[in-house]
Amino acid sequence: MGVPIRSSLKVVQIGETEDRIPVFLDRFASEADHIVFINRIKTHTDFEFEIESGLMKLMAIGLGKQEGAAACHQAILTYGYPRVILTVARKVLQSGRVLFGVGPVENADFQTARIGVFGPGELEEGEKDLLKESKELAGRLPFEKVDLLIIDEMGKDICGTGFDTKVVGRIHQPLLVREPEIPKVKRILVRDLTKNTEGNADGVGMADFVTKRLVDKIDIHALYVNAITGLEPERAKIPLTLGNDREAIDVAIRSVGLIPSVKLRIIRIKNTLHLREVDISEGYKEELSKRSDLETIAEERPIVFDEEGNLEAF
Length: 314
Description:
With 314 residues, this protein is an alpha/beta fold. The protein has ten helices and eleven strands. The radius of gyration is 21 Å and the shape is globular.
């Protein structure tokens, strides 16, 4: 658009909530005549409520940069996500600087399905409606019971937690929330990090197994800053690390119980954004035959590893 991009971690405090939570605002934004918020409306990785991840969260946590995010996450351990996000965001709205908000909703193919535009007075209620639509359109695994989920890649460019917790049924925040009831995934293996995550493997601790290839790409400083700011040390723990894909899959299969190989329920996905096409094991054959909403697009084939013991790219 021919305008400068200004970014820094400097903030100013514009007040505090009724719970005495400090409310911070990006310094550049504080000097602007007006602020326009743009953020996709979607489920949050850690909780369920009328408002989760979107414009209100951006106001509460994103606009306050690292200092604001740290203050909010500390308060969340005491007051919970919904109360903190709503009270802090409302304080930002009361500042009079917000011109309007733009909230895109995406479908299961990561494409824009709808765009909502709201003035400050209608933003909160408007986001609630968009979240309902987002949940209806969200991608999910084709089966609810999984012995082993193989994820080819994780990263911050896919989800704030590396992979979508609601897709895999694992949140790993014992001090805040219970684990989802579905899907039921016994073991998770993550094969690699995306290039665009730049070494930040936040969320890796939710996996059971990873490859050495993934671990070698981790930027420990970036991972720790993310985990400390979000008060989620559990998600920064490095899982059992295997030398290659073959070793990792072999160990993972031996950790799901006494299940005959032909009955193993294994799903392989590229990442939690791309779920329209997935690989499944023959253990789903009987269940697949009863599903009219799923289509088989490739014939059965054996798992093939290269000379280094790794799978081909999805």
